[in-house]
Amino acid sequence: MSRVVVAGSNKVIEPVIEKLHELNLLHVVNYSGGDESFEMGKPVGKSSEYAEQLIKLRSIERYLEITDKMPDKQFSTDQVISQMGGILGNLGDEVIATAERISEIDNEVKIKQDQAKSLKPLAALPVNLELLYGYDSLAAFVGTVSSPVEADVSKVSYVNEVFSSGSGAATAVAVFVPVEKAGEVSAALSEHGFSEISVPRGLTGSIAGAISALESDAKRLEGEKAPLQKKLKDIRAQHEDLILAIDEHISIQSQKAESPLRFASTENAFVIDGWLPTDQFDMVKKELEGAAGGRVQVEMLDGSEAEKFVEGGEDIPTKMNNPKVVRPFELITRLFAIPEYKEFDPTPLIFVFFPLMFGLILGDVGYGIIIFVVMMMLRRKFRTPGWQSLINIVLISSIWAIIFGILFGEFFGPLGLWAYIFSGAHHVGLLGTVAHPHAIGIDFGPEFYGPLGRIGPEIAGFAGPVFPMFRLETASVLVLIGISLFIGVIHTGVGSILGVKNELAYGEKKHAYFERLPVLLFQVFFVIGLLGMILGGLTHPLVILSAVVLVVSIGMMVKGPEGVMGVTHVPFFVSNLISYLRLLAIGLASVGVAFAANQLAFYVAMPMLSGGGHDGFTTIAIVVGIVVLVTVHFINLLLGILSPFMHPLRLHYVEMFTKFYSGHGGGVEYSPFGRVRRFLRD
Amino acid sequence: MVVENIVDGGILYGLIAVGAGLATGLAGIGAGVGEQGIGAAVVGVVAEEPGFLGKGLFLMLLPETLIIFGLAVSLILMFAWTPFA
């Protein structure tokens, strides 16, 4: 990246902007207004017009429920300009009118439904609606009561008219009394649990008739809505890509028109500051000079001048540059922080370690294949770059899950269990008969590792089942603890080495050798010491060696920039390593649930439903068993995507990145002035 | 003091198993207590700004390290620690 200044006469600002936008290379540094002789530039062209058009277009998009998507069709700029008038004019007005009519209908329907609902309790009253209100000398009480009121009303007011219908708690009444008696009657009514119903005005005829009229009106209006909605849907289907293309076109125009707001300008000239990939400078210079007819000056600042801007707080933009396979993993880097310009981009490391950890945790051929297939299907549906990255990450990870699944001998749970189930060696299998019903249980004994057999030497006194390895077996757990810690040492070690390298790149030798390096030594030799202890107790040479190195590394920390306080981080480094045990732990949880699912289906549900299962299984038992099997495996699969994804993420962010990454605060992503055209064809 | 050997099925073995269970279980409760606050906050943020979901889920996981420590203690108890042997 090089710091570049583009200066020229205001007369050529438009072609310069046009060319810069087209090149899509210059990362513009906004003019901050610190200099008295310059002021902020003014928009060129019809920027307010574009803004208005954009507002209208966006509201059309909202009514049509158009959201950003990948293009199916592309349009040339001429096509867009010629059709823009129609879309923004007649068609747009039609869309807006239709959408507004739909919301009007919704409103009316709601009002009518509410009225019908409030009248429902009164349906059987033998009084017409228009007679229920609008008197000067009469007070009307309309509502429901819980017990007959005629006698009490007569007691209070001799002159009265009471209509009622129904009985019990929901008796509907309409009571008419002279106005002057209203207070007393109201008191009498409230003793009968009177609750008033406000009669909607403007309706006539019998109450039951009014209710059915309201309901049929609501239904008719609903019917009116359907063709309108279909119309919007048709418009959307027909014009979706065009509308998005117009959106893109206007956005580009408005971006160009408003760009001078980011430049410094005087009465007659403008100055654009920005960063440019160094190797592109000559090309950009030539293109700009050509576009402006030589009335523009393009200059690259040399290193020391650019350095001044950086010291003044300007960030050099970073462009992550990774091979295509690795690129999806930039998503994970970005979620944490954009690397600074001088920093190492950790994306390739994530590419190596992340899927490996995912696979180690999930480690099941069946789950791996399902995730792989589902992701392949989703890949076609979700085509925006963010989704694509995510899907590709999981896709690559699922391949590792299959590989580890083969190593662990797992296919929807341990393979051994399947062989056990189907062979019927000790118990009635799906296809077999009972031999020893009492020998049902989790403990298969050491000879039982499925049809693939097992290979591998003894490890530290334990018979090490290496292939396929039953993860729930004690010896395997111990082996996996070792593997997890080993991965942890490599992972944090790489992080520490990069930390040393980073500090050196920033010229901070003391931080490099007395803060980052001792961490590396400490963590590596901590684990070597553990290994020594397992191999030969406290007097093993490895233990002695590592004890020496640990003391030396702590000594180095004391000499470091933080002094004695640096030693307080030691528990943190130990916990960093122990944290990698999650690779084992979550994997065990996952295989445990899969195991339980199989057990539950084949050793609990099926035998129980067929009376002990001594004579084979009944059909219903098999059906129920399979339902149980599928349900539990499905839940486990959902968890099996989430946990193996989030936990390695954490291992990267917390355990690895803290060793080296963005210790100097996050960087700024290179986002050049311009726009990638998606719906527009060049 | 009488030193008992730890034998399969013996009382000491049982006590060790109980201890291992407590180590993981109590650590799990601790992590849960930690996560409840974070979870509530994350749900609040996600309601306002759905884009925060990824970061929120990640923050939720931070206290889960506690369980791992508990589990490490359990594993040591069950498989590696033989004090009276």
Structure notes:
The complex is a heterodimer of chains A (682) and B (85). Helix content of chain A is 57%, strand content 9%. Chain A is extended, with a radius of gyration of 38 Å. Chain A is built from 19 helices and 16 strands. The longest helix of chain A has 52 residues, at 207-258. Among the domains of chain A are: 1-38 and 263-317, Alpha-Beta Plaits, CATH 3.30.70.240; 119-215. Chain A has helices spanning 13-23, 47-64, 77-119, 150-156, 182-190, 207-258, 281-291, 303-311, 330-336, 347-362, 365-381, 385-408, 415-423, 474-505, 509-536, 541-559, 570-578, 582-609, 619-660, and strands at 2-9, 27-29, 39-40, 75-76, 138-145, 161-165, 171-178, 195-196, 264-265, 269-276, 296-300, 317-318, 458-459, 462-463, 668-669, 680-681. Chain B has 85 residues and is an all-alpha fold. Chain B is rod-shaped and about 60 Å long. Chain B has helices at 11-48, 53-61, 65-80. Chain B has one domain (11-79): Up-down Bundle (F1FO ATP Synthase). In chain B, 74% of the residues lie in helices and 0% in strands. Chain B has 3 helices and no strands. Chain A binds chain B through residues 335, 474, 477-478, 481, 575, 578-579, 581-582, 585, 642, 646-647, 649-650, 653-654, and chain B through 54-55, 57-58, 61-62, 64-65, 67-69, 71-72, 75, 79.
